[in-house]
Sequence to fold (334 residues):
Amino acid sequence: MARTPDPRTAPPIRWGILGAGGIAGTFADAVAEHTRAQLVAVGSRHRDRAERFATAHHIPTTHVGYRQLVEDPQVDAVYVATPHSEHKEHALLAIAAGKHVLVEKAFTRNAAEAQEVFDAARSAGVFVMEAMWTRFLPHVAALHQVVDAGEIGDVLSLIADHGQLLPHDPRNRLYAPELAGGALLDLGVYPVSFAHDFLGVPDSVTAVGQLTETGVDGQVSIVLGYGERTQASLTTTMWARTPTVAAISGTEGFISVAGSFYAPTSFRLQRHDGRVWTFENPGRKGLQYEAAEVARRVAEGVTESPLMTWDDTIQVMRTLDEVRRQVGVAYPGE
Ligand SMILES: NC(=O)c1ccc[n+]([C@@H]2O[C@H](COP(=O)([O-])OP(=O)(O)OC[C@H]3O[C@@H](n4cnc5c(N)ncnc54)[C@H](OP(=O)(O)O)[C@@H]3O)[C@@H](O)[C@H]2O)c1
Fold:
């Protein structure tokens, strides 16, 4: 089967949305437009937010409180779309109610929390996956195909960048240590996960960062080392909009991935023998692919996706933990 089958061919599943924030709205639209899944309920801490979200996204049931959402018998799978600091608690809440769970990236604040969630999922026998949507996009499937086929030879270098000009507002969750803010967990997780996807677990992690006045990382540059001859150079910032491009280079050629490399996009493969190959972007929206992956795997009766395994998520979190240790960012209570 193709790695990114049409999301409309995935079996129906009934979603409950936990947290009526920004990305939850984008997810709801993508699911409604591009899959056969149903959005059956939304849970918010505030009645007015739940009702506004339900009206905007045509969701029949609203819950005030997340417990009520996860205990709703109509819900098969819960999409956790809260700040990073809350992911562990909200994922555990859904797992305890016997629900399958898709948890927004970064999966948790750190690797130890991720392990706790997966241990609970294993005991409960439910499906859990990090919502690292990039892994399920058509251009990423095509990238794996050409890299695995040896089109660029042995991979020696990977570069990836994710910078956004986010509002400079110390009250925003991105600036709040207690909500596990900072560029790394919001934006830098994409380049780090991309490197893990193509190169695996690094042998070494080296990071340099600059912090906000609130003590979270504003921007970070990371070098991951693999063996004697391969490196990934990754950058992230929440202080500037950057080209958000990526490149994978090998002994026989290189691939330039257009910005935004982590969203549906195109790429160009250029071999040293002069051959050139391009992949055209099939569309703008992309969250439906991860949603379809959940529906397919739940229908198969498995608890994890082979494209975003529990171990992959833990390894990415370990790299993020090491980066934060080096740049000097710890969240309260860690
Ligand atoms: N996949 C992507 O492209 C993408 C893009 C952006 C963000 N994200 C990820 O999605 C998650 C949420 O980001 P977002 O930008 O959607 O955030 P957001 O707009 O601030 O929404 C987060 C929601 O979480 C709920 N919440 C629960 N506890 C909270 C607390 N203590 N403080 C604040 N909000 C709390 C709130 O919903 P209620 O008030 O309704 O309960 C809030 O609306 C993060 O993990 C982020 O990294 C992913």
Summary: The mean pLDDT is 97. Residues 19-24, 44-46, 49, 81-84, 86, 104-105, 131, 133, 173, 179, 186 surround NAP (CB under 6 Å).
